[in-house]
Structures are given as structure tokens and as C-alpha cells.
Design a protein that fits this description.
33% of the residues lie in helices and 17% in strands. By secondary structure, the protein is an alpha+beta fold.
Length: 411
């Protein structure tokens, strides 16, 4: 066993030091479009040293499982107190059991997003509510400690919905089959849109690899996104196309997805630290005899190396608020600063790079162009609204017909 472990350690070291151009699974063409800009010379000529998405990216909750996901009655003062105290899953679930649905008669507007949805579609089994509570139960809530990892939620759904669904600026009233009016506040609508994208979106554009807990140390599963990949994605997707993409900003096995709002780039000389917005002024001719970092990992066609300090602003997540309207005033922004160098060929084309900050995303991705993902039951057959809702809710998929109506009326 020791001999085998030693062999693995040697193999891992050898693999880690091998020359590493941008890997095949980080091909940005699908993300950046047919006219991808790959030269720093062209980036400067087109004025893309900074850029921003043309999208109204709204903030919202990631509906953490340790609070009950979409089943959390965040507008109920008793529940709000638990949120403030940073209570764990068991406390939220116990309070829900002690205050059953019927006890909210006449106060339906403070129910959870999942409960409101179940009532409006006429689902007597309250399937989406049950699904939401079961997420926490399966992911630690049923253990002796009763603790659910706080990062588990639908940040992927939030990151997609924020860029693909219009901001819900006002509340919407829908009626249950019995005629009871229920108000869906902007946070409720965002919740259902986020869950729809988390569970129903198809064929997202994915670049990189997720770092899984327990992944073998000599694989590339826990490498950061190559700096060259990240640089091209910012310049093309955000700067040139005025779109956004999502980054897992947390290195390691946890996943925290955030959509990009804007970026700005300053280049620097890797030896002197001198800065410029023009890469040519601070780029260094590549020579293996000079003390460049990780010289043996560089792309074989590298002619120049230039450093880059890149500031990226992301649409941030936040706790669900109690407002009846929503605007940019309620948004939060997360700032990240990355430092890396870029390997360039003789024409200034990006070949790859190495990270100095070691905080680049594990992977980046973008939703496809289907604005409102449809549930499996809506795609696969005809049934009554209740039957479709029940079947889809068991998979955590709100019906698109309901989600669309909410977002359209909330504009």
C-alpha cells in the first residue's frame, strides 16, 4: 500500500508540473459566440478593457435548505426571528409542524412561496412544499446533529433566473380554485423563477470542472479555471456581447454561483509591477532563462507574458426581504479581484495563463436561451393542471405556465 501511495504521489507531482495550455473542456467558443476575440491587441482596439452586461441582474435569496428552501415562511415574524438567530433546519421544521397550514386561514399572504404555489394550483398534497422540506431532510436534517450544510440551496437557479427573467417589480395576486386571493410578493416570484431554472433548465453551457469532495489529488477536477479562459469569457461574453455568465466563486467542493455584472482590467509587468491599460507597455518577452513563475508549465508558443489585475462585480445574493415592490435599490453587489498572468503568442493572442491569486472560479457557465424552462410534465404529455403540478412538484419543478404568468404580471 505504501509503495502504491508513493507511486501516486510521484505521478501526481509529475502531472501537476506538466505544460498546461487551456484544456479542451474549457473551450469558450460556445460561450463567446462565433466571433470570439482572442487577441489583447483586438481587445484594446475594440475598447473592451472594461465592460458590463446589458442585463438588469436582480438580487435574491438562494433559498437555503437549512431553512426549508422554498417552504420557509420568511414573512412570518416567528420564522424571521429564527433566520436572524441563524437557526438550523430542525428549528425551522419544528416550527412548521407546530403551526400547520390551516392555522394561517386569513393570513395566507405570509405563507411560504411553495405553500402559495401549491394552494394556487389546487394541489391537496402540497407537493412542492413537501419537496422543499425533504431537501433539508435528505441533506443532513435527519441526522443526529440535524445540521444541513449552509451552502446547499438553489444559487444556480438564482444566477440563471436573475439574467434570464425580468425583474418582478411589484406584487401579483392570484386566486386559489376556491377563490381565495393570495399575494405573491417579488421575493416569492423570484423564488419560483429560481427553482424553475434550478430544476428545469436544459443544456446549459458549461466550462471547466466541479471540484468534488474526495476527488483524487492528481486529477484536474479541482484546478481553477484557466486565466486565459476566464479573461476571454469576460471580454467576449460580458464586454462584447453584453450578456452575463455564472462563476462558481468558491474554490473547493462548495458551490456558490454568481452572475457577472461588469469587469475592469489593468495590466502589469510581472517583474516590476508597473501598471498600464495597454498590455504592450508592460508585457515581457518570454524567455525560459528568466525567472518567470511556473516556467515549465507555459504554452509552447508563448512569446510574451503580461500580468492582469481584474476587478469583477457580481450580482449578489441576500436574505429574502418583506417589501411589496422591488428595484435596483434592493440589489447587492459582490466584488472580487483576481490577479493572474496571460501567455501570449507573437500576435498577442491568449494561449493560457497562471493564477497568482488562486481564487479563480472552479468553473463558469451560462444558461441556454430558453427564457422560461418547462417542467417535465408540460413537455411530456397532457393532463389537468393539478395532475401536471403534482407530478412536476415532486421533482421540484414549478409549472412554467404559472411562473410565466407571475413574471409577466409583476413587470
Amino acid at each position: 500500500m505504501k509503495a502504491l501511495l508513493g507511486l501516486l504521489l510521484i505521478s501526481g507531482a509529475a502531472l501537476a508540473d506538466r505544460p498546461k495550455p487551456i484544456p479542451d473542456f474549457e473551450d469558450t467558443a460556445a460561450l463567446d459566440g462565433a466571433y470570439e476575440i482572442t487577441s489583447l491587441k483586438d481587445i484594446e482596439r475594440k475598447g473592451l478593457i472594461s465592460g458590463s452586461s446589458g442585463i438588469d441582474l436582480w438580487s435574491g435569496s438562494y433559498w437555503p435548505q437549512y431553512q426549508g428552501s422554498l417552504a420557509v415562511r420568511y414573512r412570518d415574524p416567528q420564522v424571521a426571528s429564527l433566520i436572524t438567530q441563524e437557526a438550523q433546519y430542525k428549528a425551522f421544521k419544528e416550527l412548521s409542524v407546530k403551526t400547520p397550514l390551516y392555522s394561517y386561514y386569513g393570513r395566507e399572504n405570509i405563507l411560504s412561496p411553495a405553500e402559495k404555489y401549491d394552494l394556487v394550483v389546487g394541489d391537496p398534497a402540497m407537493s412542492l412544499t413537501a419537496y422543499s422540506w425533504n431537501l433539508g431532510h435528505k441533506n443532513g436534517g435527519s441526522s443526529e446533529s440535524g445540521k444541513v450544510p449552509i451552502w446547499r440551496g438553489i444559487c444556480d437557479g438564482f444566477a440563471s433566473a436573475s439574467q434570464m427573467m425580468p425583474r418582478p417589480t411589484k406584487s401579483v395576486v392570484l386566486q386559489t380554485p376556491s377563490g381565495t386571493p393570495i399575494t405573491f410578493y417579488p421575493e416569492d416570484i423570484k423564488a419560483l423563477g429560481s427553482l424553475s431554472y434550478a430544476r428545469s433548465q436544459r443544456n446549459p453551457i458549461f466550462i471547466g470542472k466541479r471540484c468534488l469532495s474526495g476527488a483524487l489529488f492528481f486529477t484536474d477536477a479541482c484546478d481553477e479555471t484557466n486565466p486565459g479562459t476566464f479573461h476571454k469569457a469576460l471580454v467576449n461574453r460580458v464586454g462584447a456581447m453584453k450578456k452575463s455568465f455564472v462563476a462558481d466563486i468558491s474554490p473547493g467542493s462548495e458551490v456558490w454561483n454568481y452572475p457577472v455584472k461588469d469587469y475592469s482590467i489593468v495590466y502589469y509587468n510581472v517583474f516590476s509591477g508597473d501598471e498600464s491599460t495597454s498590455y504592450a507597455e508592460v508585457a515581457e518577452v518570454f524567455n525560459k532563462k528568466l525567472k518567470f513563475a511556473k516556467v515549465e508549465r507555459r504554452h509552447k508558443n508563448t512569446a510574451y507574458i503580461v500580468g492582469a489585475t481584474v476587478t469583477v462585480h457580481y450580482a449578489d445574493m441576500r436574505v429574502a426581504n418583506l417589501l411589496e415592490t422591488d428595484s435596483v435599490a434592493q440589489d447587492k453587489t459582490l466584488e472580487m479581484v483576481y490577479s493572474y498572468d496571460l501567455e501570449l503568442d507573437a500576435n498577442g493572442k491568449i494561449l493560457g495563463g497562471e493564477s497568482a491569486s488562486r481564487n479563480l472560479p472552479d468553473f463558469i457557465w451560462a444558461p441556454n436561451d430558453i427564457t422560461y424552462p418547462k417542467s417535465d410534465s408540460e413537455l411530456n404529455g397532457r393532463a389537468s393542471l393539478v395532475e401536471m403540478a403534482q407530478a412536476s412538484s415532486k421533482k421540484g419543478q414549478p409549472l412554467a405556465i404559472i411562473v410565466e404568468r407571475l413574471f409577466e404580471r409583476a413587470r
